[in-house]
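Hi team, as promised in this morning's meeting, here are the two structures we talked about. I've kept the exact order from the run log so nobody has to guess. The first one is mostly here for context; it's the second one we should focus on when we meet again. Sequence first, then the predicted structure tokens.
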Amino acid sequence: MRSEFDFIQNIKKKYGLNKVGDDCAVLPKDAKTDMVITADMLVEDIDFRLDWTTPELIGAKALAISLSDIAAMGAKPVFALISLGLPKAVWETDFNDKFYKGFLTVARHYNVEMIGGDLSRTPDKIVIDSTVIGNIAKGKAILRSGAKPGDSIYVTGELGGASAGLMLLESGCRYSTSNDRKKQLITRQLRPIPQIKTGEQLSALGLATAMIDLSDGVSSDLLHICTMSGVGARIYCENLPYDRNLDELSFNSAQQAGLALNGGEDFELLFTGDEKQISNANLPGITRIGEITANVGIIEVVDQKGVSFLQPKGFRHF
């Protein structure tokens, strides 16, 4: 079965859509500035469930995941639009008010102005579409296509927590009845934090040759960089920064590696660049996990057992 990425690549080639393929579209704004635009969709019972979250958290996440796309370009978010499709039964509750409270709380935190959107009725499920517009200095947007053999591979933050939080929710755990460590894992799933500041720093300093946000998991998102850049990669499992709260679930090292590589929704940044330059920049909260190779399309994983080939096992809608 073809993936979303395969479909996108097909329509790009078929219709000559040369601005499609990164976390955001990059468009000229004026002589000094480019504009970046992204759109994300959340569908009830596919991307969230009402029985394990709140309208406020859904609103916050809807904006946060779009802000993460802006961060992946190294840009500054400026404007947001939000469109909702709601069943009649939901419309007649206070869902709307609480959703916008969560959305606008995040918007104000990042100085993003909501400028519009749309409302419509759906038959039975909630559908959310979030659009964010940002600015970046002309020619400074960090694309997926700039990685080169010899570049090092880095991630921000810790990995695997959001996926573990989803596992907890699916097993029946809820935030209100969990201990502190499980609450932190559930929060990673329900309330992601976009890495806006780090993205802007990487762009301003010219350090990242390619970048993507970790929405689908390292195995899938790194492959996107490799495909767009025409390169391969090598990952060292011992270097992966596992979420410290995973110990609460008694996972062994192989299971933790699986969550970190394939889990997705951590909404951290994965980027490539020159190891010496990045080391000299002393950026906080980043970890070198591997390097870019000339083996086009092949991602090697090095662990205690030796070298294996990483297949994309991150989140797939279809």
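And here is the second protein, the one for discussion:
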Amino acid sequence: MRVLVVGGGGREHALSWRLARDPAVDEVLAAPGNPGIAEEARCIPVAADDLPGLVALVEREDVDLTVVGPEVPLVLGLVDALEAFGGVVFGPSADAARLEGSKAFAKDVMARAGVPTARSATFTRSDWEAGPSDVLSFLDAELGGGPAVVKADGLAAGKGVVVADTRDEAAAAVEACLGGAAFGRAGASVVIEERLEGPEVSAFGVADGREVVPLAIAQDFKRAGDGDAGPNTGGMGAYSPVPFVDEVLADRIVSDVLAPTVRAMAEAGTPYRGVLYAGLMLTAEGPRVLEFNC
């Protein structure tokens, strides 16, 4: 079997490393790869967001299976393009990848599925132009004028979230997105939500469009500074297993979060296939979803 890994980061390095050791795999290719991946795979300089180039590469190299690592080509529809060509791909369609591509969409799915998450509201630049005070009133009327989280709706390389300690910080983040075009198109809409408290963990499951099989729980750290301070980054470090997540809690995460989300996507006609990542806060009331990644 010849396998193509799309992407060029640490995630794709890990995938390439493991695939290269599978006896069923004859060769691993990577597009575009990186110098570390080059020790495990044949790297080909095709960008991960170059959909026509990747389709041509799959055809030219007679690839049997494509594994897509980054979220951008998934949201752009790489899986759809390869499947239309007749390729076999591991990863969600563009419609399913909206779980990461739009935080507002993810909130709607969770509401339909009954998945526990933070209280929130979504606002657009049109809302802001119609009246900034109406937008910011959510911070006072619904969130009590205290700490809040402001999220750019679209993809922002893991950096589109502001965890505000005060109402003023939250208001400034909303104005930066809706009034000042921070994060560009990704910030044309924002999700404002209550700030949850508790340890954060990451849950992963492999889905076939109907069912989901859980993988190990991990804990990662996104804030840039020591002591969990500073802005969010694209991810600073992680470890697994997590000693305070026992089997009972792990099962609850599957039954309350992963399984109902996969079911809701299937019922909507957008079945999710691939790895579904749920970023969770373990609150005093139980796990709450912060975000989904694809």
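Starting points for discussion:
The two ends are 25 Å apart (CA to CA).
The CA atoms of residues 70 and 137 lie 36 Å apart.
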